[in-house]
Amino acid sequence: MNLKNKITNKLQSSKLRPTKQRKKIAEFLFNREKTFHFTAEELNKIINKKDSSEKISLATIYNTIDAFKKAGHLKEILTNNNKSFYDTNVSSHHHFFDIETNELEDINYNDIKVVNLPHAPKGKKIQDVEVTLTVKKS
Predict the structure, then answer these.
(1) What is the pLDDT of residues 43-74, one digit of tens each?
(2) Residue 2 gets which letter from DSSP?
């Protein structure tokens, strides 16, 4: 399947019409080799660079991110400063969060062992455990 079809399918599976703006956002997010961590505001700055001929509204960016998250194409990571980051890697894994640079870095899921988990509340089960370690310069 070519890239245009993959992007269109991803948009449609997210219940989004494949408009030119949404295709641009999806191509930027998902046509890459490495995991991409970002905030909506950072994505807005990148997508709407000064030399960009067609601007995308911040509302479209937020709505597209939200739809991708709900469809399982993005993962939201809430940091200790209540800032939402999004991750294109939706598999289970952990993160370092640098409080000085506001950057996330992946940690392999198997590199952290969590022991002594509490019991889940009645009627609930633990689905997954993801750890975010906050770091700064030593």
Answers:
(1) 999 999 876 778 899 999 999 999 999 999 99
(2) -
Q: Kindly list the strands in the beta sheet with 103-107, ordered across the sheet, starting from the edge strand earlier in the chain.
A: 103-107, 94-98, 132-135
Mean pLDDT of 23-37: 92
- What number of residues does the chain have? 138
Average pLDDT, the chain: 91
Q: Answer whether 25's CB lies under 8 Å from 56's CB.
A: yes
Cα separation, 10 vs 31, in Å, equals 12
Domains of the chain: 3-135 (1.10.10.10)
Read off the pLDDT of each residue in 4-13 and give the average, rounded to a whole number: 86
Counting other chains too, the contacts that 72-78 makes at CB distance below 8 Å and 24 or more residues apart are 73/10, 73/13, 73/14, 73/30, 74/29, 77/37, 77/104, 77/130, 77/132
At 107, is the secondary structure helix, strand, or coil? Answer: strand
